[in-house]
Amino acid sequence: FISIGRIAGTYGLDGELKIKPNTSHPELFDQMEFLLLTYENELKRSLKIEDIREHNNLLIVRLKGIDSEIDAAKLKGLNVSITEDMLPKANDDEVYWFEIENMPVVLPSKKEIGRLIDVMESGSVDIFRIALQDGRFALISNKFRMACIRLNFKLSVKPVCSCYSAYGNKLHIIPADKYYSTISKP
Which of 177, 170, 167, 171 is nearest to 113 (CA)? Predict the structure, then answer.
């Protein structure tokens, strides 16, 4: 399953729910007849959508069989998911998160430095969280500071000016020409 939103809470007293979308394709919700609710990638409920509308950057949904605030509250925190075949085709310069999650991260020298474990949206840029082989983590921006290229089923990282890297509880700004030697040190 692929998560495209999360049940954020109840809305009113009649069993309506607030959904916080987490997709760049909100039109997916308009195409859905049933809401697939998952937790840790396991299907928990499939409920027929009776009504869905936008409200303050959220979606308000009424589901068949959910008629009270108490029933609705039991669904809070579940993910709204779809199956892979429901996704729109990605453009040539796009990739879906599930396609790169846990992918090895390699330097142009072919040295593997870790695995991509998370993408954090921070507004104007996305931040890749990389679990390094020595147990530390690196945070690397995907725009302006870094160019990330997917090659041969590995995510290659190529600095174009400078990048941010986080080690322990410190944030270091590393010039591009020093990036490779710094990131590869144990």
Answer: 167
